[in-house]
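Input record (Table S2, row 184):
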Amino acid sequence: MSDATHPDFEQAPEGLRWTGALRDLFVALSAETYTVRGAWVGRVLPCGAWVQMRIRPEDFRHEMRICRREAPADDAARAKWDQECATFLQHAQHRPHFGWHQEDGEVEARGGIARLYLELFPTEVAPGKVTCTDCPAVIDFDPVSHQTRCTPCARRADLEEIKAKIGHRVERENTAREAYGGHA
Ligand SMILES: [Zn+2]
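Output record (zinc ion complex):
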């Protein structure tokens, strides 16, 4: 990549250009999303890529877009685009423990290209999906019950809890019997 800045960067209004550290960009954009009621906010980088973010109105998750005004024209350009997106993603920690899930497909419109990402809550492996705490099964994240185990593991855990309770009761009864036993 040459050191020359991209024309899209040079033509962008001063306030929309980003020359700072990448990790600061995502924190700055995230903070900005709270001030614009669901609208997209973004910055263009010297390489010509746009990074945009918004809060999705339907579920208040952050959504991120990495875009270029020109879609990759050949395999080499596509490989470069993939690498670029991967680099952004490495730095895209917008709040601690939150991650990103790449949405299916890419948007290619008006000659440009955009890759979409949806925010992942700290325990999610995909939007609305978490891994069972006791096995590798992926289960639906239920914001009401906060169930963290798959059905078989949840049954097993319930059963063990019941066994433990019964065990305690038997132990208590045995202790009581022994205590009175001596005076019987
Ligand atoms: Zn499980």
